[in-house]
Queue: 3 jobs
Job 1
Amino acid sequence: MSLESEIKRRRTFAIISHPDAGKTTLTEKLLLFGGAIHVAGAVKSNKIKKTATSDWMEIEKQRGISVATSVMGFEYEGYKINILDTPGHQDFAEDTYRTLTAVDSVIIVVDVAKGVEAQTRKLMNVCRMRNTPIIVFVNKLDREGRDPFDLLDELEAELGIQVRPLSWPINMGVHFKGVYNIFEQNLQLYTPNKQFISESVAIDIQSTQLEERVGDADAAKLRDDLELIEGVYPDFDPQQYLAGQQAPVFFGSALNNFGVKELLDCFVRIAPSPRPVQALEREVNPYEEAFTGFVFKIHANMDPNHRSCIAFVKICSGKFERNVNYKHIRHGKLMRFSSPTAFMAQKKETVDEAYAGDIVGLPDTGTFKIGDTLTSGEQLHFKGLPSFSPEMFKYIENSDPMKTKQLEKGVAQLMDEGVAQLFVNQFNGRKIIGTVGQLQFEVIQYRLLHEYGAQCRWEPIALHKACWIESDDEAELENFKKRKAQYMAKDREGRDVFLADSGYVLQMAQQDFKHIRFHFTSEF
Ligand code: G4P
């Protein structure tokens, strides 16, 4: 197969949702269709059990197990599908944000009873920053939930995107009878079944066949609903979907494997193949012969006796080959990899080649950092791995003065892995660690001790947000930095960061310094 056709048939995406909406279940059903697994219940995903939230070692163990399921590749009807898993636990949200930089589209799972939830909203914002194409799957139709029209209104308002149903439910809960597939114009009748794939019925929606199948009342309601849909919603426009402006919506029940095949069949047809990626120097087209890629995730091995990691590389263009020299741009060095791994279903296996759109895992002993670029030789830097303002902050202090070097090295490497963010206060020189969740502090303390032999302790600091600041007005910027000297810090790239101690202070600063732009992500 030519390079072009290999790349064209790739579909690399992530499934995102608020915890418990059904991401894991849907992933599993998709794998069933791909023949990647044969029974339900086989996926050990990144999902972290609710009961384990206070025990992060347990969580890390589960995360460790899930290396193989971080990326799940499988073949389906001539397409090569790569699903990138994202951690369900919100303390690892930063991981999810970065994973979203490596996908070409996403499927959002929404619980029909709960609608748009906090985590969904956040993740959507990240998708919008990059105009990532989105398909929505409304899940759990076998349970009572919200009126579908209300739900569509909410999706549109909350997610700030135009929606277009491509399937439509006939009742829900105990009266759930199935969905009408608007995209393919056939009827899917519901039989609750967790293991097998249900059959679809070709039906003329205007014929009495519909009454025979679902009864008079539901047939009439379905016809009315469909008429309303055609009247209210614009036609599905693949171009708008690809531009991230219109989201097709499907209804179903992942647990019952219902509506999933329709989703997948439509997905492979409309979802984008690998898209061009912006580097600092130029836009890189996936079909270019020369290999380029970037590290979007580093997964540490939790076994203290083997401090090794896997660096996950998204291939942006061309073909990656085993044992070929590639340039590590930040180090300016050539590197070759004798055991790159690819991820097929549940197995991690050594591969000889991989194509744009694919993810390869490279064994890493501290040479990679999140955002690093690898190329066939060209001097390129991929952009777009934003850091988000952390939600929690603590001073990190050295508890063992004999181990200062180890502590510094450990902190630097953990930051390279993207575990948390480090800021240095310019006023007192103290180091501040910012995270999105309490768990990371425990993870850092434990790993510093067990992997680097260093001991740290945390001291409280009351901060609200970290904002990256910039201005065209040099004088005002200098004035601001002087006035707020106690709250000015630098991030690891040496950029100016304002540490606001309350929402009010931030608001006042924004009012008083009109020529300064305050950013809540490091990419602007
Ligand atoms: P997540 O990865 O988004 O966190 O969600 P997950 O798939 O684990 O699903 C969360 C819960 O919702 C699970 O139940 C799962 O069985 C259930 N679920 C998923 N899809 C459907 C559906 O279509 N209908 C119904 N009724 N339930 C669904 P659990 O009790 O938390 O876990 P488990 O013991 O069943 O694994």
Note: The longest helix spans residues 216-232.
Job 2
Amino acid sequence: MDKKSILITGGAGFIGSHVVRLFVNKYPDTTIVNYDKLTYAGNLENLLDVERSSNYRFEKGDILDEKKLAAVFEEYKIDAVIHLAAESHVDRSISNPLEFVNTNITGTATLMNVAKEFWNGNFENKLFYHVSTDEVYGSLGETGYFTEETPYDPRSPYSASKASSDHLVRAYFHTYGFPIVISNCSNNYGANQFPEKLIPLFINNIKSNLPLPVYGKGDNVRDWLWVVDHAQAIDVIFNNSKLGETYNIGGNNEWTNIALIKALCKIMDQKLGRKEGDSEKLITYVKDREGHDKRYAIDASKLKRDLDWEPSIQFEEGLEDTVDWYLKNEEWLSRVTSGDYKNYYQKQYQER
Ligand code: NAD
Ligand code: DAU
């Protein structure tokens, strides 16, 4: 590692916390600054195991706050950024699109601009790593895969805001020679994911014997990747990619929602000592998500070919590990599902 000080934005969130943990432990001589606004999705409890490490710092701040960012760059002499801070949930983008425009587009532009000013044209050994999503490519039919050459076709306010931020990051590369790399990843799952997303929401509902709200027919397809594998892919790309490159990251692991939910119910029955089939009875088909993308599937062969990365574990193993984590961390789950979560849940699901 040739960087002395790395700013990780969104490090208190789901994926960010796994990236922070990996970098703090793997690079003890590098200062890792976690810059996070601590929205509903940010939680410092995700980082209890590393918060006392001598190379870890936390700075509470908004990526829209140019002044605060400039002060943080100056204080830590930041020479690389891994940018994960974002509004990340598609359903929330449907009810509140402007929040996504502000955070994901203007926030990314503000952060990049502060980095550009601070580095002041001297980009040697500097890097701005932008973490993005496969949703920028749109929706697939029954066949085919997203490659790095697939034209952008975002279809939700969330994916449009991420696509827009990707375009801005590439524009800085072409216009200013700003040192960037982008990765676009498929659906992540694992410990510490906020229970608005499919897998932790359904684990929580099964545990509490609440209905499992399946959108539409449950035949939408997602390509699932264990979050620890995503963090490892980010590390490999961060250290080895050429500037200006894009890499797709995926699990090569497609599931229809309903097949995944049934697999999850089976694991939960075993773990909770219920009769097989009990949890499945909670499945409830509800009104579909507006503009619901049918299928995502990543072709990650470029990452395998160029940088020799591939997922480390099978989905069944990762899913069981995830269920175990949520059952073991009941307090974490009950804290994040109290207060505002209850209002969100009611609003999101009562009319479906
Ligand atoms: P998350 O919602 O769990 O966490 C987002 C984090 O960003 C939170 O800690 C939040 O406090 C912080 N944040 C939000 N607005 C901020 C602001 N204005 N200033 C500073 N911090 C702010 O998200 P996640 O699922 O961990 O996703 C992280 C990144 O990875 C996002 O950019 C997302 O688009 C991308 N991504 C996610 C997935 C996935 O499956 N979750 C897949 C591919 C890409
Ligand atoms: O593909 C990467 C993206 O994956 C990331 O960029 C996003 O940040 C992340 O949220 C995720 O987006 P999805 O919309 O695919 O994830 P979500 O967990 O919200 O939904 C997964 C699938 O499950 C999707 O087809 C919708 C469906 N679903 C979801 C919820 C929350 C349901 O059927 N019922 C639900 O209650």
Note: The longest strand covers residues 127-133.
Job 3
Amino acid sequence: MKINHIAQLQPTPTAVVLAFVQDDNFENQLQQCCSTYALNIDFVKQDFTADVKEFQIFYTADNQKVICLGLGKAPKSIDIIKAFRTLFFKLKNKLPDGVTIDIQHLPTEWTEFVVTGSTLGGYNIDLYKTEKKEISPIFKKDGILNILSTHEHTEASIRRGKEIAKTQMKIFDLMNAPANKKTPQTLANWALESGKKFDYSVNILEQQQLKSQKLEALLAVGQGSEHPPVLIVMEYKSPNAKQKIGLVGKGVTFDTGGISIKSSTNMHLMKSDMGGAAAVLGTIELAAKLKLPLHLIGVIPACENAVDGKSFKPSDVIGSYSGKTIEIIDTDAEGRIILADGLSYLVKNFQPDTMIDLATLTGSCVATLGYHAAGLFTNNDELAQNLTNAGDKTGERLWRLPLWDVYKEDISSDIADVRNFSGKPMAGAISATKFLEVFTENHPNWAHLDIAGTAFGDTEFAPQRAGTAFGVRLLLDFLENL
Ligand code: BES
Ligand code: ZN
Ligand code: ZN
């Protein structure tokens, strides 16, 4: 699909999409649009009230298709994206190969969201079906989406909206890929290819280097798998960078739980246990594409948590990159173990000004916040506020949970420096974060996001759960407002 900016309605027949907000201006705007497109306002008003995601198709006297799309009251960016995604997802087979979205009466900032949503509507989840559905005309190579607007900067907003959607769809694919098609090396290759394409550097530490550099925590979790662990280090540096931001993402390509094996119900969902890694990959790719004036470092410890004679076991005491020792109580609490190495690798080698890690870390966080917000943990109020604002703005919401030192007891070990689980079914998301904190060298500007409930969600676009790319738009917004 090509996306063009047009400043005037073209005579060529295309379907036209008009979106409306349910506010005091609604009647007026409807009136104007109806007169532009020669529709009978009385009929339109009967059938269309601009409820969120409502859409209605009308035909003009000369047989042009006009689709009215509702955005509800005071829509936020995510509502606009979802409304357009739903429209294009549901109608894609009924659309011609040319569609014009008339956004002249909408705020200029919405252009990006309109484009992102429309593009995402074409996402196909049938990655491994042998009989592919025929691509709808509008989403084929020569399908054309015209954005009718007289706003300034429309072109730039179109590009931005499109690039965001393109990266998000690559992340969906990565999240939705099953364990037999996705190993630590797959994540490494993704980073290498992206780095080559968008001009940032990627360095992969493979098993030998992990051993010589003593990333013993990552090695321990990965030792039961046929697919060796890797540490992916990505670096994007703009010549105008004033700040150095480090991102760490949990990249467990499949989490069986290890010897502390998970029950089989829903174990298949653990192909998504690399949601933190996916968010970091997507954010760095977009930052490089959009040339943000920053110095960004992405660190992804990637491995598979498998069951095998060689697997690490409960009671093992392992070393780590930081030099601290860890007593393993539960091998299913593996995310925090590999993040320990990821975080200390980042702090020691890069000394970032700000450090954020993302991980599908705990079932406890899902129990607390469900699918509608990720857990936010930090001791820095300003960072908490900035991240929360970015979450509210992008609709990738965060809710802060405490990090008081009283929870430190949960991870104290008799025989090692720390243990990886309290053994108690309480405050699991918090004690997991207290564990991570041990490996941050008291970094004053660190936040942890537990995205276990939000990375792989229930959406209307797939009957079963699917990747959401949660974190990408959130971090992009956060980074742009630094
Ligand atoms: N990957 C899981 C957490 C998870 C749960 C992600 C549900 C997405 C959805 C993590 O590695 C895990 O198994 N955590 C355990 C830790 C426990 C054994 C201390 C959990 O939360 O139950
Ligand atoms: Zn686990
Ligand atoms: Zn896990």
Note: The first helix runs from residue 26 to 36.
